[in-house]
Amino acid sequence: MIQQPGRLISLDAMRGFTIAAMIVANFPGSEEFVYFTLRHTKWNGLSFTDLIAPTFLFIVGVSIALAYGRKRTEDGPTGELYRKIVIRSLKIFAVGMFLNLMPDFDFSTIRWTGTLHRIAIVFLVCAFLFLNTTWKQQVWICAITLVAYWLAMTQIPTPDVGKVVLEPGQNLAAWLDRKYLPGRMWQGTWDPEGILSTFPSIVTGITGMLAGRWMLSRASPTEKVSYLMTTGFFTATAGYFWGLTFPVNENLWTSSFVLVTSGFAALLLGALYFLIDVLGYKSGTKPGVIFGANAIAVYVLADIFALFFYRFKFGNLPLNEQVVSGMIDIGVQTELASLLYALFFTGINFIPAYGLYTRKIFIKL
Questions:
Q1: Cα separation of 27 and 39, whole Å?
Q2: Which residues form the Heparan-alpha-glucosaminide N-acetyltransferase catalytic domain (predicted)?
Q3: pLDDT for 129-159, tens place per residue?
Q4: Would residue 195 count as lying in a domain?
Q5: pTM above 0.85, yes or no
C-alpha cells in the first residue's frame, strides 16, 4: 500500500506559512493593541492564533509518515534510526530550554516546558509509534487517549479543590503540574504545556501521521483530496459537538480541541494539496516553502532577533514601541499599527531564511 511520493510542495508551504503565522502572533508590535483573533483565547473558545500550534504538530505527524514510511516496508526500523530520533528530540528540547533561559540565563526561574519542548515530545512518541504500530492501532490509541483524558478531566475531582472543575489553575491538570512539574510554570500555578495535556497533544501528531499515511498510499490524487477533506470535515464537526460538554480549550488541549484543530489542519492540507500539487498553482507559495525549509531554525532566530527589535531600547523606548507609536501618531489604527510591525519583524526573519534556502543549507534540529 505504501509508496514514496514526490515532494509535497503543499506540505512545505503549509509548514512555512504556519511558522510565519506563529511569528506574527508571538511578536505583535504592541501587546496592548492586538486584533482579537491574533490573541490566544483566555480560556474556552478558538481564535486564529489557537490553531497555529496544533496545525504545526499535525504537520510534524505528516512529516514523520513521509520520512519514515519506507522504513516500515524494507528491513524494518534499526537501532541507528531510533538513536537518530532520540537525538533529534533531545536537540529540539535543548533549544527550547535555551530560549526559555534567554536573555538572563537565570536557572533559579527555569521553565521546563514550552512550544519546542512539546514538539520534541510529540515527535519522539509519534515517530516510535509510527515505526511500531499499524494505522488501526494508532486510531485506537487516539480514541482511548482522548476518551481517557475527557473522563479524567470531567470525572476526577481536583484533590485540593474537592470537586471537578475546569477553571484556570483549579483543574486536575493544573494540580498535577503543581505537584510534579519542576521549575517555574508559565501562569504561576499552571502551565498550558504541562504534563497531562501533553497526552492529547500527542494525538494531534498521530492524526497527522494518519493523514501522511494516506498521502503515501497508491490512491489517486483526487481520492487523497477527497479523504482529507471528508475526514477533516467530520473530525472538526465531531470536535464541535464534543465541545458542547468538554469545551474547546487550547490551554487544556481538550479532546474536542484536538478534533476541531486536526479537522481544520486536514482540510487545509487537502485544499493546499489540491491547488498546489494537483492543479499546479504554485504562485505565491515560495515564501512558505522558504520559511518551511528551516522552520524550527527560523522560530529560534525570531526569539533571538526579538532581543534587538523588542527589548533593546533606543532612548527610553524599545524599537517596537517607538515605531508603533509613530504610526499611531500619523493616524494608523492601533491594532493595524501593531500588526504592521509584526509583519515587518516577520519579514526581517525571512532574510536569513532566504539566505539559507538559496545556499541549500537546511538546518535539521
A1: 11
A2: 7-158
A3: 999 999 999 999 999 999 999 999 999 999 9
A4: yes
A5: yes
